[in-house]
Amino acid sequence: MPAAVVYFVVREGQVLAGASGVPEPMQSDRLLQHPGTLTNVITARGEPVVTPDARHDPLLRDNYLVREMGLVAMAGYPVFDLRGRAVGALCAVDDEPREWSQDDLDSLADLAAACTAELRLRAERERARRIQETAVRANRRSRFLLSLSEAFANANTMDQVEEVIVEVGTAGIGARYCAFALADADGRGITYRSLVHAEPQFPQRLRQTKLDEQRPLAEAARTGRPLFFRSADEMFSAFPGSEELCDPDVGARAYLPVVTAGAVVAVIMLAWERDRGPDQDSYALQTGLAHYTGHALERARLLEERRESAKTLQRAMLSRLPEVPHLDMAATYSPATRSDQIGGDWYDAVAVDDDATMFMIGDVTGHDMRAAAKMGQLRSLLRAFAWSHDESPSALLSLLDKANSGLGLLASGTAVVARLERVAGAYQLTWSTAGHPPPLVLREDGTVERLAVLPDMMLGVRPTSKRTDHVTTLNPGDTLLLYTDGLAEQRGTTPDQWLSRLQKTLGALGDTATAALPVTLVRRLASDDQRDDVAVLAVRVRAAAPSGPPSLGRPATAERKLAPSLCDVGPARIWVDDVLESCGVPMPLRRTVMLLTSEVLTNAVDHGQAPFTATVEVDLDRLRVGVRDSSTVQPELRDPAVTEFGGRGVQFLERLASRWGVDRHGGAPRPVPRHGPPREGRRTGKTVWFELDLG
């Protein structure tokens, strides 16, 4: 045959999938666009069309191929798809009349059947490929959603939720940058929690956005509809004011609102380095991220409210420490991170009279609401016994254990009760322990003593068991530490090992103020994944002024040598506070004195020359603190720049002190060389002092 084609009918005409001998331009273009062509007759009938001379056939002679293209003889057989529909045909054509033999027609029928078989095979392959792609996408989506569920399962705080969002947005979805914004409580704005993972050059001043602003973040939060931008130009076109807010080198962006209970509570912003369109899969993944984030945020808020309620209950059950003259007290409670932030650990202090104070700490078994309830009852009982019964610590523990059994509380746990009683120049410490870790004493010289004795039976086991008192002495500057086992106890270590670790840490904190000591110990010893509750109570015996409190016509005075090291500034500051407290200076005024004392002490050690001496003088009208050194260099009032770390000490003196000045010693001051101490006048020096009125 001079020409043959295999064609398929499409919307644009007939595509010549195979062609030979066809005139140009059809041979090259492989497309026949004229309507009503002869080939349409074959697909319309779904059966072969054979003619020796189409010019004499009434149904075919007016066809375009016959009239314009010179087609004369043709034999065409339809090609069927999987559903049995004629979608094309195999045709053999001639420009002269031809009588078709049966062999010719059989051969053409076989070739058309082969085309049908190949078409169906390819269709099956394409169908299988699409099914496979769909299955792969569905599997990928399912695995992504499963990973989302697992990732958010352990996110119980806002910080943890944000970490999961950033990880999923970057590693899971493939974004280069990710930011997370929470709706403000008043419903008028939305604020990014952090900009650590946001796109570069994002201004810090725009961290918060009002909902009525024309910004993509505000639009997504206001409408609750996700926004997708294929490129930076597309976003700038939609929001012209955002050019100066976003990096033009960043490509596609997505803003995904997080909706819970019908309201937008957050928006997730994703950004890619290149331009890209939101295909169906990525859209589904991003929508899934927003959906799971909503559930995680709702759970985190509920847990946060539950934790805050538990903390409020715990704080209500832990009474405020009393103010006792010559004693410096501080305490802290740190709940287990895996619980409801409440538990059975507790501390308490009761001022019995002017000379005696009772200190208690305990650990009821468990760290949940039930343990907290039993703890509150035991603590209240022991507190009442300590106030109403002038008994020894062992007797108080016996009373508590009998009441625990007789009243049906049936709580089990450990406790320490200590009585601190003032004697001549010191304090006598009497304590008794019910299965509790031993108290520690940080001595004034920095050594740590473990008050290790054989502990008595824990509470709730045998109420009639005998209990024992033990006695030691606390001198001025000594600190008593009571704690629960969650402070330093570690799995896989013996009690002696973790107690030694606690002793070493406490010894290294000898210059730490009592108010900061309990919290500092918890931060250093308790891990982030804290498995047990922790209670810590620190009591330090203050060092009084050697001259006694001030009286009419006789001020109180004290003097202390200062080591030429910044490490001695902390202990010296504590010593000044002790002297002022023993002289009856009120706490609000002592806070100001501590700030100014820190400045003059630090400036002396930093810029002065040894030896250093700190002096305190208190009378009925004023107090005076001075620091003497052997340098003649005078302090000067400066106005430092914001970026400078120092230079503000004299400003504090100028603004907070009633009076301040510099007393020179040993004659007029001499200039100091640029390097090293002065060669002359080594006995000269100065005293930088300040005064505050007590009125």
Description:
The protein is α+β, with helices and mostly antiparallel strands and 695 residues long. The chain has four domains: 3-125, 2-Layer Sandwich (Beta-Lactamase), CATH 3.30.450.40; 155-309, GAF domain (Beta-Lactamase, 2-Layer Sandwich); 319-541, PPM-type phosphatase domain (Phosphatase 2c, domain 1); 556-666 and 680-693, Histidine kinase-like ATPase, C-terminal domain (Heat Shock Protein 90), CATH 3.30.565. The protein is built from 15 helices and 27 strands. Strands 3-2-1-6-5-4 form a six-stranded antiparallel beta sheet, sandwiched between helices. Helix 9 packs across helix 10. The chain starts with a strand and ends with a strand. Mean pLDDT is 84; it is low at 668-682. Keywords: Hydrolase. InterPro entries: Bact_Sigma-Reg (IPR052016), GAF (IPR003018), GAF-like_dom_sf (IPR029016), HATPase_C_sf (IPR036890), HATPase_dom (IPR003594), PPM-type-like_dom_sf (IPR036457), PPM-type_phosphatase-like_dom (IPR001932). Residues 324-541 form the PPM-type phosphatase domain.
